[in-house]
Amino acid sequence: MNILLWHVHGSWTTAFVQGPHTYVVPVTPGRDPDGLGRARTFTWPASVREATPGELRDTPVDLVVLQRPHELGLAERWLGGRRPGRDLPAVYLEHNAPDGDVPGTRHPCADRDDLTIVHVTHFNRLFWDCGTTRTEVIEHGVVDPGHRYTGRLARAAVVVNDPLRRGRHTGTDLLPALAEAAPLDVFGMRTDGLAGHLGLPPDRCRTADLPQSELHAAMADRRLYLHPVRWTSLGLSLLEAMHLGMPVVALATTEAVEAVPPGAGTLSTRPDVLAEAARRYLADPRIAAEDGARARQAALERYGLKRFLADWERLITEVCA
Question: pTM (2 decimals)?
Fold first, then answer.
């Protein structure tokens, strides 16, 4: 099949395009958010091909995977009037937990009979009000980076984009207290100046924006993975850390309570409990490695690529029938 989708979420798309189809991603001259084209920092197969808005008008499309509300109108214009859901099979992939009037937030595609909303976590489906629209949950899948954990650096890895802008959502305000328990290496986009903003010495909060090819190795050298997120969808970086064999210290919020089983780390709604868990891993590398090995096994069983692709194949077959 020819599947049209926009390059919105690099990590998720990297797993999705490992399937058996041709994946058409729009590209614009300036590679703006509506036309990023192929990824430059992720490895995508040759089955992912770029198409300009002009080329899309005559491109055969069997399924449209929508990810943002405005893509409904964008697809109709760029596909020469073909309407997702009416003239072409379509699903709306919801990456995010709802925001605003939670738990009463209405989904932009609520009460539609022409498409399916696919949530990436059961938590998201629980909190979004989708009305009468058909909903499915297809949990994340991860391209296995391998068991690369060394934990040789007595530091905690944190992966977050825009920690200053997203603030309390991603638990940025919790980092100063947690940095007292374990020095932090915060990886992600637009993390520059984080230590100064939080009033932390540079050695207690280092930042870097690395391509994925370097990020996994850097994460795996840290003793533990810290996930202080209050409110968001389940971060793929958490699942990647588990695949790497890292022990997890995370707030017991959103879908993390489902993703991290007992023995793979510490989950709590109390930051002081997370701080104590981080201290324990720094003091005992053996325990950290053992918990990390259990985290990897759990991630392979629940978030493996084979299961993810099989779930999508089942849904694609249903929707396109």
Answer: 0.94
